[in-house]
Design goal:
With 168 residues, this protein is an alpha+beta fold. Helices cover 40% and strands 34% of the residues. Helix 2 runs antiparallel to helix 3. It is elongated and about 80 Å long.
Length: 168
């Protein structure tokens, strides 16, 4: 359909632009929702497996969870693992099933974030590292790329190692 926009009044042209913009946003939202559902399906199928075992006191119960974005909110999907406990400690163990690109939150003695990359779990940061944690959430929202996430969360670890080597 070809329209001769020169024949339209400014008011009609503005209405077309506004309606087109709203329709484009609606279609983008629909595609993003479909993409998120496809990613969730892929992740729940679990392409990789990693055995996880952790023991800690009841004040800091160990857990393993997949972190994902749902409607702009970040949620945890806890892995169902074997649990045993006594009066002062709790132990969990079992296989974690995950897919490439999944973000996992693992609490042992401390809580850390990992990403599934090339079949391995790569540590990104401690939960208390708020700037890096914000970058993880930006990655989950598709605001930054995997390369940018690695740059924020991993690259500086290599720099610290080099600096430590220079001390000798």
């Amino acid at each position: 359909m070809n329209l001769d926009y020169t024949l339209l009044s400014d008011e009609d042209l503005i209405k077309i632009i506004e309606r087109s913009s709203k329709e484009l946003q609606r279609r983008k939202d629909k595609l993003n929702k479909q993409l998120q559902l496809a990613k969730q399906h892929e992740r729940s199928s679990g392409k990789y497996t990693h055995f996880f075992c952790a023991t800690n006191t009841y004040g800091y119960k160990p857990y393993a969870a997949r972190i994902f974005s749902k409607g702009g909110k970040f949620e945890r999907e806890f892995f169902e693992l074997f649990q045993s406990s006594n009066s002062s400690q709790k132990t969990i163990s079992g296989n974690l099933h995950f897919a490439e690109g999944d973000i996992l939150e693992l609490r042992e003695e401390i809580t850390r974030y990992f990403i599934a990359h090339e079949g391995q779990l790569v540590e990104l940061c401690y939960k208390k590292e708020t700037v890096k944690t914000a970058m993880i959430y930006a990655f989950l929202e598709d605001i930054i790329s995997l390369e940018e996430l690695f740059q924020y969360c991993i690259e500086d670890k290599e720099i610290i190692e080099v600096i430590d080597d220079l001390k000798d």
